[in-house]
Amino acid sequence: MSSRRSEALAFSLVTGINHAMARLVGIWDSIGIMEEQRVERMETVKKHIEGLLNDMIIEEEALKHRIRANIITFQKQLDTLCLEMSMDPNKMEEGLTVLQIEKNLRLRVEVLTKEKGERLKELHGLQQEDKELCVELCVTPYYIPTGSMPSRTQLQELREHIQTLSEEKKSRAKVFSGLREDIRKLMEEMGHEPETSLEKESVGHDEDIFLLTHENIKALKLLLSQMEVKKESLTNTLAELKEQSMCLWNRLDALEQDCNVFQESVQGTLSDQITQWQGEVDRLTDLQKTRLEDVIEKVRQELVTFWDKCNLGPEQREPFNAHFCDNNFTEELLALHDAALLKVKNYYDQVKPLLEALQRWEKYWALFQDFEKKAYDPNRFSNRGGALLKEAKEKVKVQKMLPKLEEELKKGVEAWEKDQGSAFLVQGRRVMTYISSQWEEYKQQRDKEKSERAALQTSKKGEMTTPFKTPTKRAHGGINGPTPNKIRKTPSQLTRVRSSSTFIRVPSSKPPLSQVQMQKMRPLESSSSQRTPLLECNSTERKQPVDISYADFTSALSKKTSDAVFNSTAKDPTF
Q: Annotated region Disordered: where (predicted)?
């Protein structure tokens, strides 16, 4: 379409020139200009037209060369910008005219130049912000070579770096403010005045006095830990003073009302409270010196209480007996008693878990003995309502718990002895020796009771057996009276058991002993003769306790269960 328009314009241009020349010729004809003059005039018109056209051609040629030069220049600039901005090289479309190429390159260069300026401006702002954050946090800034053009990736990484630093700054600022607040509160609670420059800066109200560095955070944490240690020390000192005051109040029989009034009057910081309590301790100490005898006697009572709690035997108490029996009541004697009391209290705190474990064992040991005593009570079979079943369950529970508690106690004692390097004694004996002696004593007591029951049973049997003379017939054929034909007794009224020349008389209201029961009584009599006599159990040569486990004891106990049940039923007069 455009080519046709240009051809039409060219044709109209030629037509216009022809019309103009025709008019000039007509004018020349009307004027009467001669041919020679006409030629000259036409030559002039031709030169003028050719000159105009040549000027136009020259201008367009210059434009063409300028456009080509621009294309080269813009292409170089575009390549440089792409290289600086880390972009891919520009690719031109095919089939474009020179003018279109020049225009596209020019617009692309303008866009990249504008983007370059924006990047440099953003880089400057980001670097300034990054520098400030890095100074506050004492970290290394994000590195971008000076004078270089940052890429889009670098700018994005710089933004993320600044965002991370900003969050770190907020986090550290929160930690700093928290640490300073905690330090300030601790100092106020203790009544501590800042001494070092760090302490003064910590309690100050200037938030920007500290750089938010890890070193400063560590320094504040260290200061906080020191303040906490100091507070703990002051708290322990205050607790010790309170304990001393309580002890002195108890020793001096102070009125509870006066003690409460003093405790309510104590106020202020820890340092102030310590000063007030120290004054009270000093006052009570001076008062104590005037009542040494009463005070020492109370300390002795408390000392005996803790000795009993710790299960200390006579050998362990023996070293202090000389001071315990000393009646020369002096401050030195009170100091010795206080030292001994403090020592046994510390020992009690160390072995308290072991003592609690021993108390649990003794509790179940008492239950076990109680159940074993009930096993010989025939009246328990008359109970109703599931009491026997409940008792059996409880007994099984106790039998399971005893060895478990013994094992736990043994392991605990071994660990404690290994850690402390000393033996744990119960009434002067090792704990397992103590437990074994309890089992041994219980076994001897059972054998003693069994021997006593056998002896009692033998004596009852002798009382029930009475001798009779062999009946002889008189002249009338009677037996000390009427003849058997006149006096008859039924078998239910009189039962005779032949044993050599004696009779056993059984009341008529009771059934006779059967042959099976008589056979059961014979092994009982024979076994009773094989048991340990009562004299042996009470002999002066007492056997040393040997280690015996719960399993060994129960296995030996199960072998004698049937004998124990028969002995308990044999005591019932109904048999």
A: 442-547
Q: Where are the alpha helices (DSSP H) in 268-384?
A: 270-289, 292-309, 314-317, 321-324, 331-374
Whether residue 167 contacts residue 212, with contact meaning beta carbons closer than 8 Å, is answered with: no
Report in angstroms the alpha-carbon separations of 159 from 130, 150, 165, 565: 9, 12, 10, 93
d(CA 466, CA 501): 11
Amino acid residing at 233: S
Q: Which residues are CB-contacts of 541 (< 8 A; sequence separation ≥ 6)? A: none
C-alpha 292 chain-centroid distance: 48
C-alpha–C-alpha distance, residues 409 and 357, integer Å: 6
Q: Note the pLDDT tens digit of each residue in 432-484.
A: 888 888 888 888 888 888 888 888 888 877 766 654 444 444 444 443 444 43
What are the b/e assignments for 420-458, b being 16+ CB within 10 Å? eeeebbbeebebbbbbbbbbbebebebbbbbbebbeebe
d(CA 448, CA 442): 10
Collapse the DSSP code of 483 into the 3-class scheme (helix H, G, I; strand E, B; otherwise coil) and give the result.
Answer: coil
- Terminal CA-CA length for the chain: 144
DSSP string computed for 527-574:
HHHHSPPHHHHT-SSPPPP----HHHHHHHHHHTHHHHHHHHHHTSTT
Q: Which two tokens stand for residue 139?
A: 């970290």
Give the whole-angstrom CA distance, residue 542 versus residue 499: 42
Q: What are the Cα distances from residue 312, in Å, to 322, 342, 351, 428?
A: 17, 15, 12, 6
Strand partners of residue 502 = 467, 499
Please state, in angstroms and rounded to a whole number, the distance separating the CA atoms of residues 231 and 209. 26
Q: Answer whether 248's CB lies under 8 Å from 288's CB.
A: yes
pTM above 0.70, yes or no: no
Instruction: Tell me the residue ranges of DSSP E strands in 27-121.
Output: none
Query: Residue 528's pLDDT band (boundaries 50, 70, 90)?
Result: very low
CA-wise closest residue to 429 among 265, 327, 544:
544
Per DSSP, the chain holds a count of helices (H) and strands (E) of 18, 4
DSSP code of residue 467: E
Q: Mean pLDDT check: name the lowest of 21-30, 134-143, 222-231, 558-567.
A: 558-567
Q: What is the DSSP letter of 511?
A: P
pLDDT at residue 133 is higher than 70: yes
Q: Measured between alpha carbons, how far is 127 from 161 in angstroms, rounded to an integer?
A: 11
Question: Within 13 A of 287's CA, how many CA atoms are on the CB side?
Answer: 14
Which residue(s) pair with 425 in the sheet? 430
How far apart are the C-alpha atoms of 205 and 195, rounded to whole Å?
Answer: 17
Spell out the residues 6+ positions from residue 152 whose beta carbon is closer than 8 angstroms to its own: 86
405 burial via Cβ count (<10 Å: 0-12, 13-18, 19+): buried
Alpha carbon of residue 498 to chain centroid: 82
Residue 425 backbone phi and psi in degrees, to 5: -115, 145
Q: What is the pLDDT of residues 149-191, one digit of tens each?
A: 788 888 888 899 999 989 988 888 888 888 888 988 888 888 8
